[in-house]
Each structure stands twice: as structure tokens, then as C-alpha cells.
Amino acid sequence: MGAGSWFDDNISRVVDGRSSTYFWTGNWVGGVSLRVKFPRLFALVENRWVTVEEMAMKGWKDGGGAWVWRRRLLA
Question: Alpha-carbon torsion 50, 33, 45, 57, what sign?
Fold first, then answer.
């Protein structure tokens, strides 16, 4: 298990091919959005209105382009 696998190991949802499902604001975990479930990360994320499709295209893995923060995490 790599450092960047926490997302793949803990989150799953089937989405269609459309780009209308928003990553941070869509209901994921028990009907709750990631914005609500992880408010500290949501406060730090650069693009709050990114879609799941855009996140996947940028890369989920550690160091992938999907993770862009306003400042370093754990700083």
C-alpha cells in the first residue's frame, strides 16, 4: 500500500461518463459530500468545483495533478 492509495482504498462510487459529477460536493460517503466529510481538506483545495472526470484525468496517485492545495498539507 503506497502513501497515495488512501483514496482508492476508501472511496468508491460508480459514475457515468458525463462530467457533471462534482468531486468535492457530490454525495459520496454515506450520502455525505467529501466537502462535509473532510472540511479541512476542502478548505485547502485549490479547485473546489472540479468534476470526478477532471480529477481522474489529472491523476489520483500520490503526486498526481488532481491534488492541488492552497498551501502544503501538514504545514
Answer: negative
Query: What whole-number distance in Å separates Cα of residue 27 and Cα of residue 12?
Result: 11
Q: Can you spell out the DSSP letters for 11-51?
A: ------SSS--BTTTSEEETTEEHHHH-HHHHHHBS-TT-B
Domain boundaries, the chain: 4-8+19-75
Amino acid identity at 38 = F
CB 68 within 8 Å of CB 47: yes
Whole-angstrom distance, CA of residue 37 vs CA of residue 40: 9
pLDDT in tens, 48-59: 999 888 888 888
- Tell whether the torsion through CA atoms of 22, 57, 70 and 2 is positive or negative: positive
The model carries a pTM of 0.68
